Amino acid sequence: MPRLKEEQLQKIYDERKKQITAAAVKIFAQHGIQGTKISMVTAEAGVSHGLFYHYFKTKEELFISLVREAVVTSVAEIDQLSQLSGSPIEKVKVLTEAILDESGTPFFMLLHQARNSQEVPEEVSQLIQQYPLDLYVERLLPLFKEGQEQGEIADGNLKELISGYITILSGVMVLGKGYSIPSAELLLRFVKP
Q1: What is the pLDDT of residues 10-37, one digit of tens each?
Q2: Do residues 33 and 63 touch, judged by C-beta distance below 8 A?
Q3: Are residues 81 and 94 in contact, defined by beta-carbon separation less than 8 angstroms?
Q4: pLDDT averaged over every residue in the chain
């Protein structure tokens, strides 16, 4: 088979898989794993059931892969904050704006479903245990500590402050339709002195 044809086929394969996963994030975020049917995902993606099964054996396999991607990406994005230029509060603002970006809402809802649903695959439970909320607090601790030392972050117990910050952002993201999303500047008042 000519190389160009292989590359074209791979590109089509990757695009279709991305189409299915993007639709699945929305559906799982809204309905959880128990309330999601493969037909809902295929309808949202505009693909056939057969095509779905070409990429994923079960909805559980798809859910696991999406949760894995969401937790790994979220930790990597926090870790990349140290590479950014700017003061600690500017970096926290970048993180806050990224979290508040509506395009990320389905991923927050997906993780919310994974953390709070009764019936999730064992591998998802293990991922949630491997990436607990405390891990995010620990990853943000150096940034917030530096901010506190520079007078940009409020005094007090940093772990409590970071936990509160994460809780507020998570709450905002899972409220759903009908609620307005506050500005990053408004939310940063929680951590500023």
Answers
A1: 787 778 899 999 999 999 988 989 999 9
A2: yes
A3: yes
A4: 90
| b/e 60-79 (16+ beta carbons within 10 angstroms → b) | eebbbbbbbebbeebeeebe
d(CA 69, CA 66): 5
Contact 159, 137 (CB under 8 A): yes
Opening angle at CA 126, ends 53 and 111, nearest 5:
70
As a whole number of Å, the end-to-end CA separation of the chain is 64
pLDDT tens for 51-82 read 999 999 999 999 999 999 999 988 999 999 98
Taking CB atoms within 8 Å and a gap of at least 24, the contacts of 66-70 are 66/21, 66/24, 66/25, 66/28, 66/110, 67/110, 67/111, 67/114, 67/124, 67/127, 67/128, 68/127, 70/107, 70/110, 70/111, 70/114
Q: How many CB atoms lie within 10 A of CB 143?
A: 21
Question: 59 vs 20, 30, 34, 35, 53, CA distance in Å?
Answer: 11, 15, 10, 11, 9
CB of 85 closer than 8 Å to CB of 94: no
Any idea which residue has 């189409």 for tokens?
19
